[in-house]
Amino acid sequence: MVWSELVDGVRRHGRYGSAAEAEQVTRTVLGALGAALTAEQRTGLAAGLPPEAAVMLTAGPAAGRPLKAAEFVAEIASRVAGATPATARWDAGSVLGVLPAALADDAADDELTDLLAALPTGYALLFGRAELVRAA
Length: 136
Description:
Elements: H1 3-14, H2 19-36, H3 39-46, H4 51-58, H5 69-79, H6 85-96, H7 99-102, H8 106-118, H9 123-126
Helix pairs in contact: 1-2, 1-6, 2-4, 2-5, 2-6, 3-4, 5-6
């Protein structure tokens, strides 16, 4: 998938009114996601994404520890004027819900599965997947 297809997927999935709005949401969410992940986590995910998305994911400083899903949503809300937790969750789900389709290959999809298993609870739902539960 190329950048324009990713943005169009976000536009359709999130029901945004324009490609420009969807692109802004995509940039915001990927930037926040990159800041919410450790350097290793975001580098692994970025490897399977279109180059423009990978740059946004890895541009800023990485987290020392993965943020909790609620902290991640709050980070998105802080980056958008007038955003609420509900609109930030919508934006996160709109972008993260199409990322699995944007991944370049099955190995990248496996990387996403491994990433979701390592992240605090709540992220899988943002990616449009069932919450993973570790066996006891």
